Structures are given as structure tokens and as C-alpha cells.
Amino acid sequence: MDQSIETMSTIPTRMYEAWNRGDVAGFFADFAEDVVSAELEGTIYRSRAEAVTAHEELHGTVMKGSQRAPGLPADHGRPGVLRRRLAQNQRRRSSVAG
Fold first, then answer.
1. Confidence at residue 89, expressed as pLDDT on a 0 to 100 scale
2. What does the pLDDT read at residue 72?
3. Is 54:45 a contact under the CB 8 Å cutoff?
4. How many domains, in total, are found in the chain?
5. Among 34, 47, 55, 86, which residue's beta carbon has the most beta carbons within 10 A?
6. CATH number of residue 27's parent domain
7. Residue 95 forms beta bridges with which residues?
8. Residue 42, pLDDT score
9. Contact criterion met (CB below 8 Å) for 45 and 57
10. pLDDT of residue 23
11. Half-sphere exposure of 27 (CA within 13 A, CB side)
């Protein structure tokens, strides 16, 4: 097997392991510093640092303790996060308006 292909094939496992440890910087370690990436709903990150910062917030709150496994889809798009936040805000509003 070509060494570069062999090296690249280890990246997903490193990403899963880092995510499962709660190591967001480790999850993005193999991304280029100047990467441009996008979430499914359209949020665009224009650097690795920007992606790490955004995901650290998620990993510290609504995704805390989440796990990833090879072969399973990465179902963590922001729409789900936004739905939960909207539901939380709705509960807060209804408890305050009394």
C-alpha cells in the first residue's frame, strides 16, 4: 500500500478517538490551518482555529459527552442544536411570563 494512502487512512480513526475524548483541537488536528469547511446547514469556517472554537462551544454544552464511531454518520449539524436551543428558550419564556 502506498505510504501516503496508508497514512491518510488513519485520519478518521484519530478524529473519532479525539472526539470521544472531548479533544476538539485533536479532532481538527489533521485539517490545514487555512481550511475552509462548511456545516450541512451552511455555516462556513475559514480556518482550523475558527472550526475548533465553534466546536469547543458545542462540545462543552449540547454535545458534551457525545461519541462518534467509524461507519456511523456524523449527525451533529447545527439545525439540531438550534432546535434544542429554541426549545430551551421557549421553556424559559413560558416560565418567566407568569
1. 54
2. 61
3. yes
4. 1
5. 55
6. 3.10.450.50
7. none
8. 87
9. no
10. 95
11. 19
Domain range for 71 is 3-96
Global pTM reads 0.66
3-state secondary structure of 49: helix
Are 13 and 70 in contact, with CB atoms under 8 Å apart? yes
pLDDT tens string, the chain, 98 residues long: the values are: 566 888 888 898 899 999 999 999 999 999 999 999 988 888 999 999 999 999 999 888 888 888 887 766 555 544 444 455 555 555 554 444 44
d(CA 77, CA 41) in angstroms, rounded, equals: 7
Whether 24 and 56 have beta carbons less than 8 Å apart is answered as yes
Q: What is the DSSP letter of 74?
A: -
* Max Cα-Cα span within the chain: 67
Length of the chain: 98
CB 45 within 8 A of CB 36: yes
